[in-house]
Amino acid sequence: MTPLVRLFACGLLLASAAGAAAQAPPPTVIDYEAARRDRKLPAVTAQGPIALDGRLDEPSWAGAPLAKGFVQNDPREGQAATYDTEVKLLYDDRALYIGVFARDPEPGQIIVNELRKDFNTGSADGFQVVIDTFHDERNGYQFAINPMGAKWDAQMSNEGRDSNANWDGIWGVGTRIGDDGWYAEIEIPFKTLKFGPEAMQTWGINFQRRLRRLNENSYWSPLRRIHQLSRVSMAGTVDGLQGLQPGANIRVKPYALANVNRLAGVAVDQDYAAGFDVKYGVTSGLTWDFTVNTDFSQVEADEQQVNLTRFSLFFPEKRDFFLENSGVFQFGSGSERGGGGGAGGGRQNQSQDMVFFFSRQIGLSPTGSSIPLLAGTRLTGRVGGWSVGMLNIQQREQNLSPSTNFTALRLRRNILANSDVGVMLLNKEPKGATYNRAFGADANFRFFRDLTMNFATARSASPAARVPGEGDDWYSKSSFGYRDSFWETRGAYQTIGSRFNDEMGFVPRTGVDNAEFYLGTHLRPKRFQSWLRESFPHFQLENFTERNGGGLQSRYMDWHWPITLQNSTFIEVGTNPNVEVIDERFAINARRRIYVEPGRYDFKEHFVLVNTNSAAPFSMNLRYGIGDFYEGYKHSYTLGGTLRLNEHLNVSLSDSINDIDLDSGSFVTNLLTARVNYYFSTKVFVNALVQYNTDTNQWSSNVRLDIIHRPLSDIYLVYNERHDSRSGALISRAVIAKMTYLLAF
Q1: Strand duo 200-211 + 216-219: pairing
Q2: CA gap 89, 388 in Å, rounded
Q3: Beta bridge partners of 266
Q4: Which of 91, 193, 358, 692 allows an S-S link to 506, with CB 3.0 to 4.6 Å?
C-alpha cells in the first residue's frame, strides 16, 4: 500500500469518526410513515372546462382540495420549505388536472435554462409529480415542468430501479410567472395512463418542488434525504376517483421519410420510405405495440468515446421503440455497470458489468451503423401482481448481417412488501445460421427500508460450433446494498462462464469471477455548512480472476474524496490503483500499431475533478489525471464549458486529451465535442452535435431540427456528415426529412 493510499485510508477512518461527532444538526424528527398516511386528497370533479393558461381562475379551482406544507429533504432534511408550494387537484371524465402555485418573493431570480422537451430537471426551478396509478407502491409515471412550460416525463418501475425518461405521454401544461411566484396548470389525459379496472380507485401521488438558486428540494409527502420522488411507497394518495375511462387507447403513428445519401466515391443515392407504429391497449394494464418498417433516423448520434482498454465500449440505447417500457425487461439488480469511480466518475475507461438483455444488439451493427428492421411487436404491462413483457423483432438482411429474428420474454411477480422474482428468455435466430438462446431467473429484495439484496442466474444455449472451447455456459450474480444518511456500502460477486454466449446482451468478458466492494460515508459537518453541502470519502474494489480459482486478470481500486458545495459545485480528488494481467498481446491503438505485450502491469492514476454550478450562466468541467499506464505513463486532460445565454440558447464545448507514452510507441488522442442547442419555443428546437476524434481520424456533425406540430407528432430535418480529419475528404453525407403524425383514439 502506497503512502498516498495509507494517508487516504487513515483520512477516511478519521473523517468517519469525526463526522459522526461533528455532523450538521440532525434532521428534524419526522415520523415519515405517519406523515405519509396524513397526506391524502379527496377526488373532486371539475364543474367546467380548465384552460391551460397558468391562471387558476376557473371556478372549479376554488373547491379543489389543497396540498401544501412542503417539507425539505435537501439541504435541511425535515424542515419546512423555504417557500411553500400549493397544489390543487381536479378531474373529469377525460383527464386529471393539477394546479400549482410555487411561492417565490423574488420571481426575477427564478432559474430557467431550457425550453426543450425532456429538459434537464436538475439545473433549473421546477415542479414534478409522480402518480402510482395501480397503487402498488412500486411503479408510476413522472411528469415535470419548469416555469416557462418545458415538459419532461418518464416511466418509473420498482421505485426508480429503472426509470425510462425517453417515454413520451400525451399531456399539456400552461405556466405563468407572477409577482409572488409562478403558476402552472397541468392536464394529464387518462388515455396517457394505465390503471386498474376498479370502479372506485385510489392512486398514490406525490409532488416535488425544486428551488434551484438555493439548491433545495421539497416534497408534499416528506422523504428522507437519501430518497427521490420515485420512492412511491412513501407517496400520499388521492382517494375516490370514479368512472375513469381509458378509452379505446389505440394510437396509430405513420411516418413518411425522404433522404439523400452520399458516400465517398459513390453517386448520390435518394430514398423514400414509409412505415407506422400501432399501440393498442389490450386491457387497462397491458399494451400491445406493432411496428412496420421501423425507422430511427431522427435519433441523435452516439457520443464518441476513446477506448484505452481491451474490452468493448458501452453505448446507451437511444431509440424510442426499445426505450418505452424497457423497465419490464430489466434483469437483475439494475445497478450501474461496473466499477464506478465514485460519485464524480473519477475513473476513466472503467470496466462494465454484464447486461443480460441489451436492445442495441437489435438493428445496429457492432460499429453502430443501422440495420433496417422489417417489423416487430411488443406486449408489455401488468396483470394483477405480475409484470409481463414480450418482444419480437424481424431484422432485414444487410451486407454480412443475415435476416434475423429476435425474441425476448419476461415474467416477473411482485412478492412481499417491495420485492420481486422473475424469469426471462432470449432467442436469436439468424436465417441460415445457428441459433443463440439464453434464459435466466432473478430475485430482488428490499428489507428494513435501506437494505437491498439481489440474485440472478442465467444459462446460454448455442451449438458447440458457435462457441468452441471448454468451460461452462452459466452466469450468476449476488449483490447487496445499504444506504442511510451516513453510510453507503454495497458488494457483489459475479461469475461468467467461458462458454456463456449471450448474443442479445452486453458481455464484455467471459470466463471470469468478479468480486466488488464499495464503502463510503456521507459527511455534513456543521462547522462548514454555510458553504459545504456534503463530503463523501469512499473506497471501491473490483477484482476479476479466471474462473474456478484461476489467476488474477484485473484489479481496480478507487480511493476518492469528493465534496459538494451548497450551490452544487462538485470537486473530487483521488487515486485509482490498477492491476492488469495480459495473456495475449492487444492493440491499444491499432491505427498507429501500438500494442501492449503480455505480462502483469501495476499502475495508478491520480486525478482532480471539478464541475462548477450547472445552473449558472456559465459552468465548467475540468479533469486532470497523471500516473503510470501499463509499462509507461499517461497524462489526461478534460476541459469543458457550457454557456447558457438564456432559456433559448445553450452552447457547450469539451476537449478530452490523453497523452500516452509506452515502450511500443507514444500517441495522443483528442476528442473534441461541441453542442449548440437553440429553443425557439417549447415546440421548436435545433440541436447540433459536432465531434472531432483523432483516434478514428474523423470529424462528424449531426444537426437536427424538430418541430412538434401536434402532440407526439413531429417534423424532423436531420443533417449528418463525416470527414477524414487529416485530408478533409468527405466520408459520408446524409440529409433526412421525416414527418410523423399521431392519431389517438
Answers
A1: antiparallel
A2: 32
A3: none
A4: 358
pLDDT of residue 281: 84
Question: Residue 320: its pLDDT value, please?
Answer: 81
pLDDT of amino acid 14: 45
Q: Is the pLDDT of residue 50 over 90?
A: yes
Please identify which residue in the block is written with the cell numbers 476541459: 639
The Cβ of residue 400 has, within 10 Å, a number of other Cβ atoms equal to: 6
Residue 341 has a pLDDT of: 35
Task: Sheet containing 66-67: give its strands across.
Answer: 66-67, 85-91, 95-103, 181-189, 172-178
- 10: Cα separation from own chain's centroid: 35
CA–CA dist 30, 33 (Å, integer): 9
C-alpha–C-alpha distance, residues 102 and 105, integer Å: 10
Grid coordinates given for 205: 401521488
pLDDT of residue 364: 86
- Using only C-alpha atoms, the chain has a radius of gyration, in whole angstroms, of 26
DSSP code of residue 12 = H
Model confidence pLDDT, tens digit, residues 167-191: 888 999 999 999 999 999 999 999 8
131-140 pLDDT, tens digit each = 999 998 988 9
C-alpha cell at 724: 477524414
- Asked if the model's pLDDT at residue 351 lies above 70, the reply is no
| Identity at 716, one-letter amino acid code | Y
Grid cell digits, residue 714: 413531429
Burial class (CB in 10 A: 0-12, 13-18, 19+), 468: exposed
Question: Grid coordinates standing for 743?
Answer: 392519431
- For residues 434 and 423, the answer to whether their CB atoms sit within 8 Å is no
DSSP 719: E
List the one residue out of 210, 149, 230 whose CA is nearest residue 183: 149
Closest alpha carbon to 191 in 250, 139, 103, 277: 250
Residues 6+ apart with CB under 8 A from 433: 402
How many Å apart are CA 347 and CA 573, to the nearest integer? 11
The strand pairing partners of 686, in sequence order, are 678, 705
Q: CA 660 → CA 275, 578, 670, 737, distances in Å?
A: 48, 16, 11, 43
CA distance 457 to 275: 39
pLDDT in tens, 629-656: 999 999 999 999 999 989 999 999 999 9
* Number of CB atoms found within 10 A of residue 417's CB: 12
Instruction: Return the C-alpha cell found at 720.
Output: 449528418
pTM of this prediction?
0.88
99 neighbors 176 (Cβ within 8 angstroms): no
Q: What are phi and psi of 64, to 5 degrees?
A: -80, 145
Cell numbers standing for residue 621: 468541467
Would you state the torsion angle of the CA atoms of residues 644, 645, 651, 656, taken in this order, to the nearest 10 degrees? -50
Are the C-beta atoms of residues 169 and 96 closer than 8 Å to each other? no
CA–CA dist 110, 127 (Å, integer): 13
Q: Which of 344, 313, 308 is nearest to 636 (CA)?
A: 308
Q: Which CA distances in Å does 602 have to 131, 321, 540, 628, 630?
A: 51, 44, 17, 8, 7
**Better pLDDT: 297 or 571:** 571
The 10 Å Cβ neighbour count of residue 257 is: 19
All structural domains of the chain: 31-242 (2.60.40.1190)
Distance CA 576, CA 171 (A): 46
Tell me the three cell numbers of residue 278.
Answer: 400501432
Q: Which three cell numbers stand for residue 394?
A: 424481424
Which residues, other chains included, contact 523 with Cβ-Cβ below 8 Å and sequence gap of 6+? 15, 16, 19, 23, 486, 534, 535, 536, 537
Considering only 102-116, 135-149, 263-277, 391-405, which range has the smallest mean pLDDT? 263-277
Neighbours of 363 (CB within 10 A): 23
First to last CA, the chain: 66
Residue-wise pLDDT tens digits, 66-111: 999 999 999 999 999 999 999 999 999 999 999 999 999 999 999 9
